[in-house]
Amino acid sequence: MIDKLKDLATDLGVKWLQDYLGLEEKLENLETRINLVKYRAIDMVTLTKLQSGKKRKKEVEEWLKKVERKKIEFRDLRAQVQQARFYSRIQLVRRVETMMGEVEDLVQQGAFSGGLFLDVYDTKGVPLLATTWKGQAFEQNLREIWECVMDDEIFSIGIYGMGGVGKTTLATHVHNNLLKEAKFSGHVCWITVSQEANIHKLQKDIAKFLPVDLSCEDNDRKRAAQLFQALKRRRNFVLILDDVWTHFDLENVGIPLRVDGSKLIITSRSLDVCCAMGCQKEVKVKPLCYQEAWTLFLEKLGCCRPQPPDIEEIAKSMVKNCAGLPLGIITVAGSMKGTDDIHEWRDALEELEDPVARQDCEVFKILHYSYSRLRDQRLKDCFLYCSLYPEDCEIPRDELIASYIRERLVDKRRTRQAEFDQGHALLNKLENACLLEGVVKIKEDDTEAKYVKMHDLMRDMALKITKTKPKYLVKAGIWLRDIPDKSEWKEDLDKVSLRFNVVSSIPLGISPNCPKLSTLSLWGNELTSMPCSFFAHFGALQVLDLSCNRSLEELPNCISELERLTALLLFSCRDLRFVPSLEKLKALRELDLSDTKISDVPEGLEGLVNLKCLNMVQTNLEMISEGIISKLSCLQSLGIPRQVSVQVEELESLKQLEEFIGGFPEANSFSRFVRSRQRFNRPSFYVIQVGSGLLKGLSGHFQQMASKRVVFSFTNVNPGGEKRANILPDDIQELEICACQGLGSCLNDTFAEFNTQTRGLTHCLIEGSSEIRSLLKLSSSEDQFVIKGQNSACAPLQNLKHLRLICLSNFNGLFEWDSVANAIPPPSTFSCLRSLFIDRCGKLKKLFTPRLLQSVQSLEVLKVWGCNELEEIVSNDEEGYFSFTSSNKDSCSRATISCLPNLKKLAVLGNPKLRNICKGLLICNSIERIEVISCRNLGSLPPFLPSINGQPSAPPALKVIQISLLGWESLKWDNPYMKKILQPFVRYGEF
């Protein structure tokens, strides 16, 4: 027994000794494992900062907290080990072993095979357009800036570099990433700061973003105080100031820094500007390395390598001469696109290798190179003309082309339409050469509005060119209060642009000596009067644009002496009441008096035999004496106020008329006009109002060679009471009927040959009628004819894109059939329909049958508002039209399938009897937004097409379901799982 006790004591002593001696090694092993989880945690935190639009999962957050606690416990344990004596160290071994096990568990838990993050994307703003090309240096700069933005200790960041190096592009990507970042709650403001910006304009731009109304406050200090408080309340905002040329005091503007996580990002060509504005971090954007520059050049050239192969070495030399500037590379590549003649390549390289002097001259030389490569002088003149507009201005293409025509920058053609076509061709060439940037915006009616824009460096280059020949004086959009000093009005000036300023008066006695001046634009100022002395030495003046001087009441009499004047533009001079005699202005080709208070025809108008464009829309004219219009035999574009009647015979005498805006007091006069137009095939373009009421959408700059629109308002469409007495132009594109009488029960009962005359119709609005019961009435014979497919090209409304039906108290359906109920519409009818808006059509009960739904497969937006009797959007009257057998035995075995493959938005609002949107399954994979508001009897949302495994699924593009909480909870579900699927998309509220 004593021996056994001795052995036990010996073993115990040996173990204690081993523990005592091995404690340090075990502690080192534990520290190694602690560091492993610590570094893993650091990586997770860093990755989170780089992942915009995402947040860590809760399990990840808990794991990070455990790691932090374990790090603290380890530090305490290590301190105890260092201070412990023999017996204490032996006891600490057990704690080290226990903690090692806990840390091993953390290591295993930290794998997170299911990922670290959840997507938290919200709609917080509109991303800016940005190039998709990214190089290694670009990505590195983007990461560096993003880390600064996510760093709570950095409030201001400067991005600087030479012109054309890509600062704005880089900032644009930062902006777009910030829109997805939950931290900033969508408070991301982009302001482009023009070269000659001032505090007042900058305050105005920021106020527009917030929005804050500063219109009643002129004092900059008080404006700054209001902005400061508004931005401070926002919290976590990011203000991006692009293209800052000179530093300014942020407090004078009203921009707070170091407030609740807010950030300031500026781009500038100068490091000094960044430092003077207090940027804590400056990021320099360097030119591209050669390989990235070559890749970008080939991409913009549109090929893998230049052809033939012997051109490649020349192309590489050209890339080297671009010094890594993306703007220069894009410009040069654009100018050489499609060129395969080696002589042109060698000549281009020779021009590009000319020596440069100043720092920024490298950029200007590259940009000037592209300009000098334009072989057509007209293209050069058209490019330089764009510099007359303010910096960063988006110039409407049609407005610019009209300017080109009046400036004779396009060749004279037989028709004005042909001149517009040539203008578009010239602008396309300038865009393709990367001298101008094309901009496309989508308007509310889903049509495109096209603009061109000059990059600020391109504009700088153009202004540099126009300091010599042709010689321009340009001070546009800089809040100029006084006209330039007399010293700036040089004798050899060709054009002067003082557009978009706040000049209110021209001093008496000032008389610039500019005998060669051909164009003077004071568009968009605040002039109230003009002295005759100002025009005394403008004998060569051809284009005088005083448009949008809304306080200008009269023109000086000396305007009558400008005998070489070819264009006098007074659009939207809303207080203008008097224009002096035009008798001597025989050269005048364009006169725009639209949107003024002119009440009398200007004296001498009838003698302007060279006049091509006359616009008197929205004036106070009550009549135009008979015979005046017919004497203007060269007119190509004519606009007269709606209240003035013009005899159809006078319009017939204008053999060159291509565009007409005007009105007819009643339908019979309009019918005579249409029949006359059918005989003489003119005018080609028109906006015509029949009846009274204000005609919407008219513009002073209407010469766009585009509109074919007829509006009937507050009139009797058929005053004689005879059906189908009226006809429409056979090329009509837009038809509006508002608050009219004399309509039939449908449109083809109202207008003769409606089905064939309106095949080109794209927009249709019918509003305020108790007579219209349906859009079209079709007979069974027509139905049988088209079902056989003999002539689908005759289908009515086959090009209609947008249809609005408003306040039609007896409207009960899109189609009415004289014998066969629910027949199939003619093929191609509604095949292009993209938006359908039905509002307050009191007797409508069912909108579509499954068969009718097949005609609207292009539909993208469907809105049905305030239809008190509406019960179903898609009725189920045609059982078996399509069938689907479900694998789910709990559901019905057969169900109607409705298909709207392109529908993006569905809105049903204020339809109290609406029970169903669609009873069967709905294939609607493009749907993005569903709005259900004040439809208290709606029983369910349509079930969507099951997925492959037989379970229902949400449409892949769905973003939002807007509905009240009560409405959502009252919905019934055939499959309860469907509610769970759709719940994340629900946004409660009645808006």
Automatic annotation (TrEMBL):
<comment type="similarity">
    <text>Belongs to the disease resistance NB-LRR family.</text>
</comment>
<dbReference type="InterPro" id="IPR050905">
    <property type="entry name" value="Plant_NBS-LRR"/>
</dbReference>
<dbReference type="InterPro" id="IPR003591">
    <property type="entry name" value="Leu-rich_rpt_typical-subtyp"/>
</dbReference>
<keyword id="KW-0433">Leucine-rich repeat</keyword>
<dbReference type="Pfam" id="PF13855">
    <property type="entry name" value="LRR_8"/>
</dbReference>
<feature type="domain" description="Disease resistance protein At4g27190-like leucine-rich repeats">
    <location>
        <begin position="827"/>
        <end position="942"/>
    </location>
</feature>
<feature type="coiled-coil region">
    <location>
        <begin position="20"/>
        <end position="84"/>
    </location>
</feature>
<keyword id="KW-0677">Repeat</keyword>
<protein>
    <submittedName>
        <fullName>Disease resistance protein At4g10780</fullName>
    </submittedName>
</protein>
<dbReference type="InterPro" id="IPR027417">
    <property type="entry name" value="P-loop_NTPase"/>
</dbReference>
<dbReference type="InterPro" id="IPR042197">
    <property type="entry name" value="Apaf_helical"/>
</dbReference>
<dbReference type="Pfam" id="PF23559">
    <property type="entry name" value="WHD_DRP"/>
</dbReference>
<dbReference type="InterPro" id="IPR058922">
    <property type="entry name" value="WHD_DRP"/>
</dbReference>
<dbReference type="InterPro" id="IPR057135">
    <property type="entry name" value="At4g27190-like_LRR"/>
</dbReference>
<dbReference type="InterPro" id="IPR002182">
    <property type="entry name" value="NB-ARC"/>
</dbReference>
<dbReference type="Pfam" id="PF00931">
    <property type="entry name" value="NB-ARC"/>
</dbReference>
<keyword id="KW-0611">Plant defense</keyword>
<keyword id="KW-0067">ATP-binding</keyword>
<feature type="domain" description="NB-ARC">
    <location>
        <begin position="139"/>
        <end position="300"/>
    </location>
</feature>
<dbReference type="InterPro" id="IPR001611">
    <property type="entry name" value="Leu-rich_rpt"/>
</dbReference>
<dbReference type="Pfam" id="PF23247">
    <property type="entry name" value="LRR_RPS2"/>
</dbReference>
<keyword id="KW-0175">Coiled coil</keyword>
<keyword id="KW-0547">Nucleotide-binding</keyword>
<feature type="domain" description="Disease resistance protein winged helix">
    <location>
        <begin position="388"/>
        <end position="462"/>
    </location>
</feature>
<dbReference type="InterPro" id="IPR032675">
    <property type="entry name" value="LRR_dom_sf"/>
</dbReference>
<dbReference type="InterPro" id="IPR036388">
    <property type="entry name" value="WH-like_DNA-bd_sf"/>
</dbReference>
